[in-house]
C-alpha cells in the first residue's frame, strides 16, 4: 500500500499513460498489476538495484496476482551494459519466459535499465508493454518518461533504438535512499535542464533548494520529480517523435553524448563522466556556443554554471579529450542533418532554441576554450 496518495502526471496523445510518484509504489501490487494484461512478466534490473528491490516487487506482484509467471533478467550496472549484446540477452530472457504478446517488461532501475528494457519491449513480437519502475533520480525525472528507448554503439550514444511509450511509470522516491551521492547529483543535472529550457522560476527554486535536495528531503525531491515530469510530459505529448520542440530536451546533449562516447561510456566507477555529468558540462558548453553566436547574455550563462557548481556538478571538459574527435562524434548526433550540425542553444533562463547549420568552427572554438 502507498503511504499517501501519489502525485499523478498524465501524458495524453495516441498512447496515454500516467506517471505516479509516491512512497510505497514499489510494494503496491494492486497498482502494478492493474497495468499488466497477460500472465508473463520479465523484471529487468541491474546488479546494484536487483538485490535492493527486486524481491519486494516480486512479492507485491505475487500477492496481487498469484497466477503471474515472473522471471528476472539482471545486467551489470552502468552505461557499458547498454549494448546490443545485452539487448540480445534480454530478448533471450523473454523467449525463455515464453512471453506472449500481452506480456509485460518491468524496468526496475536507472536509465540504463529503462532504456535497454524499453528497447527489448519495443522489439519483442514487434512491441509488448513496458512498465517503468525508475530507481535513480535521473530515471524518475527523465528517462522513464517519453518512450525513447535505445542502446549505445561504440560509434555513438543511443544509436539503435525505438520510440516505445511505457504503459505506466511508478516512481517511488523512497528508492532514492540508497542511491549513491554522485548519481543523485547526476539526476539533478537533468532537473536543472528543465529550468534552463522552459521554466525560469524553477531555476530560482533550484537555487533556493539545493540544501534540501542534496540532503534528500523527501518533500523537495518529490516536488523536483513532479515538476520535471510535468515539463517532460507537456513537451512529449505535443511532439512524441521529436519532429520539433522535443529536441529542446536535448539541451547539453550534443556535447554531452560526444563526451560520453569518446570516454567509452565508462562513467560508473572511475574518472570518466556519467550521463548527467556529461550533460552538465554540455549545457555549459552550449551556453558558451550560444554566446559565440550572439545569443544568451553572459550573465545568464554564468548563472547556469554557478547553479551546476552549487549542485557539485562538473562544468569543464575533462582533460585529454580531442576537440576534433568530439566534433566527429557530433556529426552522428541524431539531431544532425546531412546539411550539418544542429544544436539546442540558449537564449536566457527558461528559453532555448533549436538552431540548424551551426558552423563547426564556432563549435571548435567553444571546445578549445574548455
Ligand atoms: N530515454 C530517455 O529519455 C533518457 C533520458 C535521460 C537519460 N537517459 C539514459 O539514462 C542513462 C542514465 O541513467 P542513470 O543516471 O539512472 O544511470 P544508471 O542506470 O547507470 O544508474 C546509475 C547507477 O545508480 C545505480 N542505482 C540506480 N538506482 C539505485 C538505487 N535506488 N539505489 C542504489 N543504486 C542505484 C545503478 O545501478 C547505477 O550504478 C543513460 O544511458 C542515458 O542515456 C535516457
Ligand atoms: O526525451 C528526450 O527527448 C531527451 O532528449 C531526454 C534526454 O535527457 C535523454 O538523454 C535522451 O535519451 C537523449 O536522446 P537522444 O535522442 O539524443 O539519444
Ligand atoms: Zn539526458
Automatic annotation (TrEMBL):
Residues 73-185 form the 3-dehydroquinate synthase N-terminal domain. Binds 1 divalent metal cation per subunit. Can use either Co(2+) or Zn(2+). The keyword Cell membrane does not apply. NAD(+) binds at residues 111-115, 135-136, 148, 157. Its main location: cytoplasm. Its cofactor is Co(2+); Zn(2+); NAD(+). InterPro entries: Dehydroquinate_synthase, DHQ_synth_AroB, DHQ_synth_fam, DHQS/DOIS_N, DHQS_C. Signal peptide: none annotated. It catalyses: 7-phospho-2-dehydro-3-deoxy-D-arabino-heptonate = 3-dehydroquinate + phosphate. Pathway: Metabolic intermediate biosynthesis; chorismate biosynthesis; chorismate from D-erythrose 4-phosphate and phosphoenolpyruvate: step 2/7. Zn(2+) binds at residues 190, 253, 275. It is found in: Cytoplasm. Keywords: Amino-acid biosynthesis, Aromatic amino acid biosynthesis, Cobalt, Cytoplasm, Lyase, Metal-binding, NAD, Nucleotide-binding, Zinc. Its EC number is 4.2.3.4. It holds the Pfam family DHQS_C. Residues 187-336 form the 3-dehydroquinate synthase C-terminal domain. Belongs to the sugar phosphate cyclases superfamily. Dehydroquinate synthase family. Catalyzes the conversion of 3-deoxy-D-arabino-heptulosonate 7-phosphate (DAHP) to dehydroquinate (DHQ). This is 3-dehydroquinate synthase. It comes from Lysobacter hankyongensis. The lineage of its organism: Bacteria, Pseudomonadati, Pseudomonadota, Gammaproteobacteria, Lysobacterales.
Amino acid at each position: 500500500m502507498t503511504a499517501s496518495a501519489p502525485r499523478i502526471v498524465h501524458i495524453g496523445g495516441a498512447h496515454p499513460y500516467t506517471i505516479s510518484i509516491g512512497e510505497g509504489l514499489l510494494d503496491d501490487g494492486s497498482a502494478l498489476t492493474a497495468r499488466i494484461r497477460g500472465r508473463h512478466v520479465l523484471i529487468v534490473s541491474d546488479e546494484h538495484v536487483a538485490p535492493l528491490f527486486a524481491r519486494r516487487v516480486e512479492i507485491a506482484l505475487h500477492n496481487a496476482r498469484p497466477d503471474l509467471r515472473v522471471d528476472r533478467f539482471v545486467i551489470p550496472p552502468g552505461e557499458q551494459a547498454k549494448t546490443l549484446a545485452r539487448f540480445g540477452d534480454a530478448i533471450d530472457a523473454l523467449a525463455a519466459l515464453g512471453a506472449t504478446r500481452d506480456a509485460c517488461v518491468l524496468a526496475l532501475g536507472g536509465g540504463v535499465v529503462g532504456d535497454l528494457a524499453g528497447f527489448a519491449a519495443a522489439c519483442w513480437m514487434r512491441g509488448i508493454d513496458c512498465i517503468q519502475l525508475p530507481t535513480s533520480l535521473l530515471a524518475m525525472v527523465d528517462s522513464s518518461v517519453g518512450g525513447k528507448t535505445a542502446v549505445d554503439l561504440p560509434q555513438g550514444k543511443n544509436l539503435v533504438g525505438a520510440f516505445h511509450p511505457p504503459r505506466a511509470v511508478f516512481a517511488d522516491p523512497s528508492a532514492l535512499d540508497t542511491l549513491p551521492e554522485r548519481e543523485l547529483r547526476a539526476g539533478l543535472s537533468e532537473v536543472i535542464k528543465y529550468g534552463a529550457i522552459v521554466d525560469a522560476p524553477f531555476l530560482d527554486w533550484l537555487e533556493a533548494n539545493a540544501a534540501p535536495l542534496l540532503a534528500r528531503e523527501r518533500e523537495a525531491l518529490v516536488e523536483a520529480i513532479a515538476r520535471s515530469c510535468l515539463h517532460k510530459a507537456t513537451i512529449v505529448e505535443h511532439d512524441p517523435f521529436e519532429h520539433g520542440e522535443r529536441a529542446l530536451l536535448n539541451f547539453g546533449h550534443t556535447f554531452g553524448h560526444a563526451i560520453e562516447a569518446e570516454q567509452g561510456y565508462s562513467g560508473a566507477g572511475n574518472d570518466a563522466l556519467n550521463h548527467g555529468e556529461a550533460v552538465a558540462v554540455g549545457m555549459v558548453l552550449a551556453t558558451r556556443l550560444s554566446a559565440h553566436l550572439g545569443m544568451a547574455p553572459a550573465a545568464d550563462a554564468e548563472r547556469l554554471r554557478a547553479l551546476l557548481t552549487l549542485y557539485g556538478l562538473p562544468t569543464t571538459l575533462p582533460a585529454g579529450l580531442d576537440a576534433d574527435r568530439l566534433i566527429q562524434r557530433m556529426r552522428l548526433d541524431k539531431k544532425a542533418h546531412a546539411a550539418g550540425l544542429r544544436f539546442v542553444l540558449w537564449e536566457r533562463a527558461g528559453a532555448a532554441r533549436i538552431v540548424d547549420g551551426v558552423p563547426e568552427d564556432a563549435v571548435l572554438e567553444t571546445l578549445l576554450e574548455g
